[in-house]
Amino acid sequence: MNKELEHSFVELLEKHQNIVHKVCRLYTNNQDAHNDLFQEITIQLWKAYPKFRGDSKFSTWMYRVGLNTAITLYRKSKRTITTQEFDAVQFKIKSEVYDDTEEQQLKQLYNAVYQLNDIEKALVFLYLEDKNYSEISETLGITEVNARVKMNRVKTKLKTILNP
Amino acid sequence: MYELELLKKDWRKDDSRYPKLTYNEIYKMILKKSSSIVKWIFIISILEFVLWTGLSFALKDADFNKKFESYHAESIMIPFMALGYIILAYFFYKFFMNYRTISVTDNAKRLMENILKTRRTVKHYVAFNLIYLAASAFLVLGIQFNRDDQMIATINKATANGELFKFYALTILITFAALAIMIGIILLFYYLIYGILLKRLNRNYRELRKLES
């Protein structure tokens, strides 16, 4: 791989690195695991980069590679996160104006999302990233109708976790 | 769902919570080696090919094989071995063709299917080897019954004592039991390795398949 390619890739990833951090945030629950997954996604992105033709946005391409690495290629098994562990998660929830109720709600929400399975998390992730159902279906390889049905089920599941 | 909108607001609001890696830190990462399951499947598969092929070559030099040559069973064994090599070449070709189709930029379901397809090829290769092993064992036993001087003497002795059926039954049973134990251990080994390696992939693939059914 030539230096020019390395340089353009590292520059692009440096700029869009938050996408990878967000995937790691959803699929790991401690700093070491976060770093580990970040590294694996970076390697996978780099390996696939020579075939990246720029016909899609770099960020869109990153979503796919990032999620594929997290739900398919990543070897380490996840641990179930508990409420107690959640407080130890590196990324504490921030609120513009401190609102105890809203902060509490967010904390419970993130906790509920952590209890979802890998595919459900992928749906939530793409939803949070404002992807439409067509993009969600293309990323996961399911039909658009099924992506909608599954998303509704995920919403119901989240409600059940929040209000048992 | 109001809660999800609240989550989305928070999710998209503040990017400063994430660590900011520098150019050099990212550059160092691309020089490191992957530890993905595809890489592990590739390594284990290559080891399997090397092991089984190596085993067949190692057995060629064993004393037993020299003794076996005296049976003059080439007309049976050479086609049998040639068939083994042709099938090995077929599996090797299929494995590499499957491996080349694995792309991290495919959609999640296709990526999982391609990995499982590659894995299935190796699984079939192992199954073929186990069947080939069992077939070889019984073929060799059959040849020995007919052409091994020591064996013929024992058979004659057993016939004189009226224990021919007992002798055949016992020999076949012992061979069968030894093979069953060996195959059992090998299968358990594979089950554990691939079970651990593909646990997450299988679970997620089942989940995606469930959606489509």
Explain this structure.
The complex is a heterodimer of chains A (164) and B (213). Chain A is mainly α and 164 residues long. Chain A starts with a helix and ends with a helix. Chain A is globular. Chain A contains 8 helices and no strands. The longest helix of chain B is centred in the middle third of the chain and has 40 residues, at 108-147. Helices cover 84% and strands 0% of the residues of chain B. Chain B has helices at residues 2-13, 23-30, 37-60, 63-69, 74-101, 108-147, 149-160, 164-197, 199-212. Chain B has one domain. Chain B is mainly alpha-helical and 213 residues long.
TL;DR?
The complex is a heterodimer of chains A (164) and B (213). By secondary structure, chain A is an all-alpha fold.
Q: Key terms for this structure?
A:
heterodimer, A: 164 residues, mainly alpha, Rna Polymerase Sigma Factor, Chain: A, 0% strand, B: 213 residues, 84% helix
Outline the fold blueprint.
The complex is a heterodimer of chains A (164) and B (213).
Chain A (H helix, E strand, L loop, with lengths): L2 H25 L3 H18 L9 H16 L9 H6 L11 H15 L3 H11 L4 H8 L3 H19 L2
Helix pairs in contact in A: 1-2, 1-3, 2-3, 3-6, 6-7, 7-8
Chain B lengths: L1 H12 L9 H8 L6 H24 L2 H7 L4 H28 L6 H40 L1 H12 L3 H34 L1 H14 L1
Helix pairs in contact in B: 3-6, 5-6, 6-7, 6-8
Strand content of chain A: under 5%
The helix content of chain A, as a percent range, equals: over 70%
Annotated CATH homologous superfamily of the domain at 1-80 in chain A: RNA polymerase sigma factor, region 2, helix turn helix motif
**Gap from first CA to last CA of chain B:** 27 Å
Structural class of chain A: mainly alpha
Total helical elements of chain B = 9
Most extensive interface: A-B, 69 and 52 residues
The value of Rg of chain B in angstroms is 27 Å
Main β-sheet of chain B: number of strands, strand sense, barrel status? none
